[in-house]
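Note to self: keep these together.
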Amino acid sequence: MRSLPPLSFPASPDDFPAELRRRVDAYFSERGISKKANLEMWTKCASVALATVGSYALLLTAEISPWSRLLIWGALGFCMLQVSIGIAHDGTHNALSADRRVNRWLGRLFDVMGISTFAWPTNHLASHHAGPNVGVYDAAIDSNPALRLHPEAPLGPAHRVQWLSFPLLYAMATLQKWFFLDYFTMIRGRIGAARVPRLSPGQWALLTGSKLGVYTYGLLVPLLVLDDPVIFVLAGFLCMHVVAGLSVGVIFQVTHLADSVSFVEPGSDGAMPLDFTRHTFATTSEFCRKSRLANHLCGGLNVHVTHHLFPDICHVHLPQLTDIVKQTAEEYGVAFHSYPTVWAALASHSRRLHHLGRVGRAPVLRPS
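Structure:
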């Protein structure tokens, strides 16, 4: 792959970013509260940990029918999702604690969930957060033979049905991370346009060891301990991944691939057409933004504009900040994209995939 210049965002033409930051800072200072995890968040961490351990113990010890055990497999997949996007994700953004060591260790829960923390910082921070919806630069919209996620990517026959097939493809997301994608990323040495640091032999041993540990508790132990037929154990393992993969795929993708948001192409020198704050509003949407339940289940990723603007703020605070973000944007004439329900967001996502899978119509911002 040819070397690409780093993205460069112009300065804002006004004080919009500064005013937005000032108002958010004032929200915390006026109430005398921290931007990091509060009692609610630490209670959530404890309850998610207990639910995960309890579900796994129940999976191995409950004397129930193989059919009934599939429900526990699904619950374990939901717990895996909550550990990943509800705890580890905040940790990797240094949003849980002012002590970076706490964030680092909780961020490593990704490894326990089968997602390598050697690849995650480049994949999520250096690629996606650095340039959302920028072709090639943002690995989250990398297109492939099954999914066309950018209007300038090659159009193939399978893309014509992607607006219908995307749930099946998203359902395989965590399976890919467990068994293929992390290895492929580290061997290839890049994610999109972002280079991944080469691993030392010791780091390769850690990556492989963590993966083997995940394979052991996730599949080998159930195969050895349960009296269920092997086909039911494999079906349960698949059910766990379908629940986790479909959920994380939908939560992450609908907020950047909605029919209201734009794609962006930099100039040949990497220069972007908008300042970073306006770029975030142009390329990102929110859904169920006032729902505390949605915020809890999605780890704050439903209020995605607010998360991208303030990734170092713990997600339990984001529902209170989204009104500030929306109001400030309206005052400065900046469009704020939001969907009232998850179904509205999914419908918008499906429409965008339909367009991209046919003729690729989608707004693309370029430098003037």
